[in-house]
Design brief:
This protein is α+β, with helices and mostly antiparallel strands. The protein has 17 helices and 14 strands.
């Protein structure tokens, strides 16, 4: 491994600290917790650990995709709720799965460019609370009802609302999404690509078939994720800010709700394909679950960190975003990683640890194959040779999103935070955090251990 490192500069962008909430499967313990409260919990933990004077914060940038109607600019709501002064600006960013990584990249540019010194970056998402969308036929009726003048005008509208023939009732009861009266879950609509008209699971099926990935290989990878995450529970607590539930705070969630210590290969093998029931291999077991959670980091210029007496945990060397075919969005890291490596002046073999978000087992395994392919590099990336081998023993060593979950707007910060903490434990110099992005993009960030 290379030991080369760029000379330190006062304008280096460093990470001083970071925390996240537990990640919890959709519909579970966080179903009633507002995403702003999840973000506030993570941010408060960062401020408490660092004892930072909040007047020093120049801006708060938070990723979110659900865009709750009562907190449209959720970054501002989180900031004020966590005690950040009103004078401090805050805004929300949205880049699908990489929204939180986008928040870090924007903070990086502002600090490196000298316009700001201290930035909070992160992401928050409660996918459970994403709304159910009412069909347009119902929407119009409900919009007209408040304007009705008395029963004479209201009753016909109500009759239209409930006038449903037997065929339509049967369609609703059987969950036929083609029925015009059937509500649509926003989260499912959001996970469907508008350009190619297929959902994220179907894109994973394409990769599994094109790269020759067996069902067994995928299930074995999923089992690995659960086993590693379960074994790393104590380590992961070091990055988790507990969340107290309910008005009386009688229950506190301190661990991720997702990893299954008793998960077996046999149980995974029994699950039926979910997206392609005839010839598919992608199941609920070898895919990441829909998840709720938040993560935040404190970024500074090196000069500012030193003046405040902080010892940074990591230095951000570079980042990269790139696009590709939406139907193969899972290969995004293969496109964005070479950009980040080139900007950092490093190669894949220099990376001591890698966090590659596990949207699907097939997606991660396909990325490993594509990164190690000269043919793919020449035909798709315009490179003269392959990016390099991504060794399994350095990838997601504490498990990944198949076990921990993937709250879309927060994951980019979570993988960066988890990577940074593990690099400190292992005294690893360089690390890569990367993820695919719905819509056909990839995002990558490279950090250096400051220890």
């Amino acid at each position: 491994m290379s030991t080369a490192s760029k000379a330190k500069s006062s304008r280096d962008v460093v990470i001083v600290e970071g925390f996240r909430t537990p990640f919890v499967k959709s519909g579970d313990k966080f179903s009633q917790v507002h995403p702003a409260d999840l973000g506030k919990t993570a941010l408060k933990a960062v401020l408490a650990k660092t004892n930072l004077n909040t007047d020093e914060i120049d801006e708060v940038i938070i990723g979110n995709t659900g865009n709750p109607p009562d907190a449209v600019n959720i970054s501002r709501v989180v900031a004020l709720g966590a005690g950040v002064p009103q004078k401090t600006s805050a805004y929300t960013v949205h880049r699908n799965c990489a929204s939180a990584l986008e928040s870090i990249s924007q903070g990086f540019e502002k600090i490196r460019g000298g316009t700001m010194e201290v930035i909070i970056a992160g992401g928050t998402e409660n996918m459970t609370q994403m709304p159910v969308l009412m069909p347009q036929k119902f929407q119009k009726i409900f919009m007209d009802l408040p304007r009705a003048k008395g029963p004479a005008q209201a009753l016909p509208l109500l009759w239209k609302l409930f006038k449903t023939d037997v065929k339509q009732i049967k369609a609703m009861l059987t969950g036929d999404m083609r029925n015009e009266l059937m509500p649509t879950a926003a989260v499912m609509q959001g996970l469907t690509d508008p350009f190619v008209g297929i959902n994220m699971g179907q894109t994973a099926e394409i990769l599994a078939k094109e790269w020759g990935l067996s069902r067994q290989t995928q299930d074995e990878f999923a089992l690995r994720s659960h086993k590693l995450a379960s074994a790393a529970k104590e380590k992961l607590r070091e990055e988790i800010a507990p969340v107290a539930l309910g008005p009386d705070y009688k229950e506190t969630i301190i661990d991720d709700i997702g990893p299954r210590e008793n998960q077996t290969y046999e149980a995974l093998a029994k699950l039926k394909p979910f997206f392609d029931k005839e010839t598919g291999s992608i199941t609920a077991g070898n895919s990441c679950p829909i998840t709720d959670g938040a993560a935040m980091i404190l970024m500074m210029s090196r000069e500012k960190a030193e003046s405040l007496g902080y010892k940074p945990l990591a230095r951000i060397l570079s980042y990269g975003f790139a696009g590709l075919e939406p139907e193969r969005m899972g290969l995004g890291p293969v496109y964005s990683t070479p950009l980040a490596l080139k900007r950092a002046g490093l190669s894949l073999k220099d990376m001591g640890l890698v966090e590659l978000n596990e949207a699907f087992a097939a997606q991660v395994l396909s990325c490993q194959k594509a990164l190690d392919s000269d043919e793919f590099a020449k035909n798709k990336l315009g490179l003269s040779a392959k990016v390099g081998e991504l060794r399994s023993e350095i990838v997601n060593v504490n498990g990944g999103a198949i076990a921990l979950g993937h709250p879309v707007g927060a994951t980019g910060t979570r993988i960066t935070l988890t990577l940074m903490k593990e690099m400190r434990r292992r005294n690893t110099q360089f690390g890569l955090a990367t993820l695919c992005i719905g819509g056909g993009q990839g995002g990558s960030i490279i950090i250096e251990n400051e220890n």
